[in-house]
Amino acid sequence: MTFDYNQKQPVYEQLVDELRKSIKENYQPNDKLLSEREIMKKYSVSRNTVRQALNELEIIGYIYRQHGKGTFVANWATNNSKIGDEYSFTEQMKALGKKPETKILEYSILNANEYFAKRLNLSPGTKIIKLKRLRKADGLPMMIDRTYIPYAKFSTLSVEDLEVNQRALYSIFLEDFSEKVKLADEDIYAGICSEKDAGTLGILVGSPCLMLRRTTYNPKNEIIEYTISCARGDQFVYNIKYQH
Amino acid sequence: MTFDYNQKQPVYEQLVDELRKSIKENYQPNDKLLSEREIMKKYSVSRNTVRQALNELEIIGYIYRQHGKGTFVANWATNNSKIGDEYSFTEQMKALGKKPETKILEYSILNANEYFAKRLNLSPGTKIIKLKRLRKADGLPMMIDRTYIPYAKFSTLSVEDLEVNQRALYSIFLEDFSEKVKLADEDIYAGICSEKDAGTLGILVGSPCLMLRRTTYNPKNEIIEYTISCARGDQFVYNIKYQH
DNA sequence: CAGTGGTCTAGACCACGCC
DNA sequence: GCGTGGTCTAGACCACTGC
């Protein structure tokens, strides 16, 4: 068995796909996998390529390796959800089997005041876009996002894409504006719901809520987004998985 | 310049240290680094080794690479705190310049009831250790942890180590019991403080608080810890950084 | 076009776990 | 001693960037 070297996808990625398929079909958790040298022979690739593929599989939690013993299949219970990705409402709701939905409550262009200028690392007065979104799951209001992004970078952002096509904001950043999220810095804390948001979320004023504050950076360390979210405390659980 | 091949530390790790030092002393953010081939010559190592070192530096956010252009120094503002690590109260408080302190409120051995047996994946009635800890920062009570671990694995756990030596639980797991944390699964949600905890934390009953529920797994997918924490909403902020 | 990072090969030795 | 994963080398070609 060999791979196609003329494809756009590198060989080690093709190998990752092959191994994933093979594991899915033929292995149980904690089974011993083929050794690196056996994989070399089977797929006619060099050891470096095998190790590159195995590294990927290790990172996504599909396998674990033990020096002197071998490579083993990890328990996939841990593999259904993405690990180490920044928070995505849509992804989390899907993982819970709920139907996510996003409604745009506000889209406006404003001049940054002192506070938002500082948060976005811009000069006060610079134009920014404010986006207020209501997130629902199975029809139930779950959280309100207030997102602030620099107008200069995203002037042609289409509200229709967000609402009608229900595209994820980060997909639009990446696909339409080539802005890659390199780092997301999140603060999570407990708070009390404001009167305004309580009405929108359909809960009592003063109910406990989960507050999220997020700043995201591109590879050049420019800030591409600042978001404050308020989630209802009686419904919303934020889940993270850390892999080592 | 060459490296010592007889050291326990692999050459690429030595190269990582060298490059970190060099970057710290001679480079500014977004400066262009030596090319991979120049590093090869300078340190007399092969390209693979250089790339292994650069991969590490990329993962910890020290550098970023651009195909066809070069390798660049990232802004270290993002590098002071560890990225992608599971939550550690002690580490976070240190990062904020606060003095962390842990007080053991309870250490007991009990038989797991239905609930905890399920959470730890044990049979009901199995012996487990309960550990209740109060976390303070600069003398101020911040959160209460209730940790449940299987007695079979950690029967010789020393409370003195935790309290007098202020050792981190995970260091003890790793160093004294060879239990490595492979995956941490955390739920974060907003809640209301119980009467009992309100007294300990010095806040009013019914105050909003941040609740954390954590399950950690070793590489074999055995559960090594289940912890529920309650943090005061007026003081405590949970910070995470995601790197891509 | 030259220079960069991205991928790949073939072969070597070491360190660890197990019999 | 043998098989495993971990590290390392020397050399090659490709794809992308910018002049």
Please identify which CATH superfamily of the largest domain in chain A we are dealing with.
Chorismate lyase-like
SSE succession of chain A: HHHEEHEHEEHHHEHEEE
Radius of gyration of chain A: 22 Å
Oligomer: homodimer
Kindly, what is the distance between the CA atoms of the first and last residues of chain A, rounded to a whole number of angstroms?
33 Å
- State the largest interface: A-B, 45 and 45 residues
Compute the number of helices of chain A: 9
Helix amount of chain A = 25-40%
CATH topology heading of the largest domain in chain A: Chorismate lyase
Report on this model:
The structure is a homodimer. By secondary structure, chain A is of the alpha+beta class. Chain A folds into two domains: about 70 residues, Arc Repressor Mutant, subunit A (Orthogonal Bundle); about 140 residues, Chorismate lyase, CATH 3.40.1410.10. In chain A, about 30% of the residues lie in helices and about 30% in strands. Chain A has nine helices and nine strands. In chain A, the strands form two sheets. The first copy, chain A, has a six-stranded antiparallel beta sheet with strand order 3-4-5-8-7-6. Chain A has a two-stranded antiparallel sheet with strand order 1-2. In chain A, β7 and β8 form a beta hairpin. In chain A, about 25% of the residues are buried. At the A-B interface, β6, β7 and β9 of A face β6, β7 and β9 of B. The first copy, chain A, binds a DNA duplex (19 and 19 nucleotides) through α3.
List the helices and strands and how they pair.
The structure is a homodimer of 244-residue chains.
Chain A: H1 11-26, H2 36-43, H3 47-59, E1 63-66, E2 70-73, H4 89-95, E3 100-111, H5 114-120, E4 127-137, E5 140-150, H6 151-154, H7 159-163, H8 169-177, E6 183-192, H9 195-201, E7 208-217, E8 223-232, E9 238-243
Antiparallel strand pairs in A: 1-2, 3-4, 4-5, 5-8, 6-7, 7-8
Helix pairs in contact in A: 1-3, 2-3
Chain A binds a DNA duplex (19 and 19 nucleotides) through residues 5, 10-12, 35-37, 45-49, 51-52, 54, 65-71.
